[in-house]
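Annotated sample (chain length 350).
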Amino acid sequence: MLPQIGQKSLREIIVPRSHHAALNVENSTRLGVLGIEKYAVTQTRSLAEQLRRDGVRVLDTRVAKIYPRPQGISSWSDTLFSEFHGINSGAGLQGMAGHTLPHIIDAINQFNEEYPGELIIWEFHQDTFVHVGRVGSSQDAATTRNLDDEERMEVFNMLKRNLKHRVDLPAIAEGVEDYTQIPLERFIGDRKSAVLVVFADNWMHAMIDKGETFAQEGMTTRSKFPYIGQWTDTEQIAKMTRNQLAQLKRLRLQPKDKLLDLQWILSMGPSTFLRMSGKDLITMARQSMVEFRKWVWMYMTTGRYPNWVTLDGLENGEMRTWAMAANLCFVARKCGDWALSPRSDMKGGS
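Output written by the structure step:
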């Protein structure tokens, strides 16, 4: 789609974002007695399938350093960095660990070799942990703390050594302070692949202290790559739908407004967890997609649309097709006058 939208900046285009992208049903390991798959696993497909088939171009990750190695998993080193979704309790991490960082790096590298000319944005969330102790369902005590600067440097150096196609930001920014204002074609013109790593601001203290020029390494922070949009902390689909559409209406008045992440995800509140509800995140995601199909397309116009759409339970290639159509209609404006105005406005709920 580069000929149609390549001249548009990153805050003007539309791409799917995978929530806890590296945590799927086929690759998850329990941490602690409260690590229960249905309450923590967010994706049904591998990272490779999300990139190839679901059109995912923004990866959300939360990193935990875990050791010692889980029993029975010989492929893991004694100490590892892994995707994690759960809570930090007084008895260590409670939740599920997903793919390791080397696995994520390999998946991105392989995708870019097979499909040159794509931009992948890999985001590292501010929540980071170190889990020391038994892994699995053991009730033995474990300890937890945040990653320190040396451990963040381990991640930084791992990316420098192994992650290919990292974009040289100073070479394409040309004085732009906000990297979301850079046109897409500067990243991936001439069918070259590009990877941009976005860290929470607190990650970069270690790099700055050591004088690292991380922008040239394809890495930046949220302060240089700002976006807006808040998740709705609820398990109620109607409440989430109203809140996310209200944010879209309030925060995106024209295409060059700040990049908006429409977070179409549900969460399980303490009451759901404590009563051990039969709900699971994947089923909840499938149910929420009914409202997504009903409302979001009809709500969008050429002046009002989200840039990222964050989802759990990506499957069937639906979002790849949806994003292509959305970019053609609302970004490239190829669908005629009907896209100028909303076809529906939510009033009073779904």
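Annotation: Residues 2-340 form a domain with the TIM Barrel fold (CATH 3.20.20.190).
Annotation: The chain has a mean pLDDT of 85.
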